[in-house]
Amino acid sequence: MAKVILDTMQLEFSGTIATISLTREKALNAMNQTFFNDFSSLMKQLNSETSIKALIITGNGDGFSVGADLKQLPIGEDMDLERALRENFEPMVLGLRKLPFPTIAAVNGYAAGAGMGLMLGCDFTVAARSAQFVQAFVNIALVPDAGSTYFLPRLIGQARATEMMMLGEPISAEKAYQIGLIYKVVDDSSLEQEAVSLARKLASKPTSVLVQIRELLDASQENNLAEQLASEAAAQNIAGKCENFIEGVKAFNEKRSPKFK
Q1: pLDDT reported for residue 74
Q2: Which CATH number applies to 4-203: 3.40.50.2020, 3.40.50.300, 3.90.226.10, 3.30.70.260?
Q3: CB 6 within 8 A of CB 43
Q4: Across residues 18-36, what is the average pLDDT?
Q5: Distance CA 7, CA 29 (A)
Q6: Which end of the chain is more exposed for a tag (fewer CB within 10 A), N or C?
Q7: Domains of the chain: which residue ranges?
């Protein structure tokens, strides 16, 4: 599989692991219309790649992404932010959650605004020690978007989410880890290595089951206990009919590592 180079990002493959690198580093990977078009294109390609087992998203330069490109925002009476969200930001986040393999955000520098939304849409976040996270919307008199009001209170609780959203102050990678916002903090020089290591660990797992776990966790926020038990039973029925389950049990009995397809 060849490298795919677009105007605002590029896609690379290394075995069963794919990496999207955001390449608007001079703009701290701010999101403009070209960014959303490119992201949509890469999501379509990734959904068609049957050999991929994990995706890493990272930002080139000094930031992961600072969210919407305010310099290109058409401010005025004709501005339709609802339409912009529905046509661009929502497909970005939902596209991530629907990918048939786990996703990792490798965050360097700032993850701000919708850049945090992009990060939160991933299953895991590994952050460089210098990374900072900020819900910057209130600082320009907007409400949080790109899924932030969905993901944040579920990850860190309503009190912490309220603090981040209403104060609009950045928090460090260490604090983000302490409050349960991210998976891991590493030295800046180790970010890529740690993200790849995690991707390889996930790639060794049964991919379809990882996706089922994501779906069950998302559903658990809305379901009552009886509904969630029913969802678990339905998912388990699907998992139990896959070859990977047979391999998993066989490997357990033979005291060896499983070789999942």
Answers
A1: 65
A2: 3.90.226.10
A3: no
A4: 96
A5: 11
A6: C
A7: 4-203, 207-253
For the chain, count helices (H), then strands (E): 11, 11
- Determine the distance from the C-alpha atom of residue 83 to the mean position of all C-alpha atoms in its chain, rounded to a whole number: 23
Of 146, 128, 144, nearest to 62 by C-alpha is 128
Local structure of 13: helix, strand or coil: strand
Look at residue 2 and tell me whether its pLDDT is greater than 80.
no
pLDDT at 75: 66
> What would the pLDDT profile of 96-135 be if each residue is shown by its tens digit?
999 999 999 999 999 999 999 999 999 999 999 999 999 9
Alpha helices by DSSP H, listed for the chain, are: 33-48, 81-84, 90-97, 114-120, 148-156, 158-167, 173-178, 191-203, 207-220, 225-240, 243-253
Percent of the chain with pLDDT over 90: 83
Q: Per the structure block, which two tokens stand in for 66?
A: 């600072």
| 156 closest CA partner among 128, 186, 125 | 125
